[in-house]
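Lab channel / #folding
Pinned by the channel admin:
"Please post every new chain as: sequence first, then the structure tokens as a reply. Keep commentary short and put observations after the output so the thread stays searchable."

First post following the new format, from NK:
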Amino acid sequence: MNINFTSLGTNHGILSVQLEELDLKPAIQEKLKTIRKTAHLKGFRQGAVPESMIQKLYGQAVKDELIQKLLNDQIQKYQEDQKRRFIGDLLQGSNNFEEDLKNNLYQFEVGLSPDMDLSNGLSQSVIPNYQVNITDELVTEELNQMMERYGPQESVEASIVQEKDLITLEVVELLNGIPKEGGISSVFEVLVDENCHPALAEKIKGQGNDFTFEHSIFEVEVDLDETAIRKYLLKLQADDIREFGPLFQMKLIEIKRKKRAELNEDFFKSLYGPDAEYNSEEDFRIRVKADIQNYYQKECEKIQEIKLTKELFKNLNLDYPDAFLKKWLRSEFKEWAEKNDSTFDHDLYHFKEGLTWQMIREAVMMEQNIQLTEAEVYQSWINDFRAQYPSFNLPMEQWMSMAERGLKDKEKFRTAYMNLVDQRCFEWLKNQVTKEDKKISIEEFRDIVKQINSHDDHFHGDDGHDHHHG
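Reply from TO:
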């Protein structure tokens, strides 16, 4: 068996694997003998099926399986021996397969991962350390938004439905235009916002209490499937399998409207918990300012990480096999094959940025021996949840139970795991590069985010984000 690499350019070439009779024939014969011992064929005792029949029935499948295994093993061994790794898939070159098992030549067009000197790239990298100036005007603006957003819902008697109202509907199943005897009835609330179905919003806006109308139960909220309708609108138990038609008589029985909250101790404790200390309105402003600063600090850290990956990509200047990448992506992926040349080149640039980050991450994980436990992943998920909803105060047992449920899906757990790996890698990387402190205004922050979002899909920081409470 021979394996060799013929260069077609930088990190691009043809990998040739030559299999010989001595590589294949003994293994094929041994496998066929094993099959013969256990084969059950009509007219023959177990173990007595003629070798020629076993060869005819199973020979090709056994041969193909062993060839694939030998190729995989040799290709893996080549990468380990050469301390190089292939990028993407191996593209099938030419096959010269002879039925007598002699001189089987398998050729693959391959791309190799470029060599990387991470320490050199880090030594050249300089990233900004942004600090957003939180003004009194910004704090006042945020306080006003919080009073509007988290004010109490109050019933309004002599009024008509408006956008953002919370309405209560009493519904009865109809049959031939009249309430169905023994039919389904229910009472539920609907918020008149973007999630309210347009057909329902059109009927109820401008109407008052006791307004009665016919409407489809399937057009109450957008993207609500039948399972959710049965559970949340009709309040049916899981074992209640009654069928129902779309039309229901609906009666508007209550309109609730959010009232602007008062800036007082009750409002403060409703947001920050009953144990939060409150002495004056100034305490509210201090707490809100700290929350805003914390939010923008986290957003600036995201920006810093994006800047760092781009800075390293530029300074490492890795020699990717572009010709191979273009051929592989166009031949293997429909979405890449359909791109025009300009879009392809733009997206290929960002694709190589992603490849570079994968190489950096693997290098840091190995260098720093980063290995995460399941408990660490759960705790990270809890920390993120707490940061988003600071008013949630639960015992640790309940937090862990929530984390276990939230990460029960393997893909969600993997995503959380890799997010934490990225976080640990960035923590280490940022300590290896030069950082320049830069104080910026909120307007400058918005401009930076806008500039990043015009080139990247993975950052969507927004100063309008609900960064205080759920």
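NK: Residues 218 and 383 are 38 Å apart (CA to CA).
TO: also worth noting, The chain has 15 helices and twelve strands.
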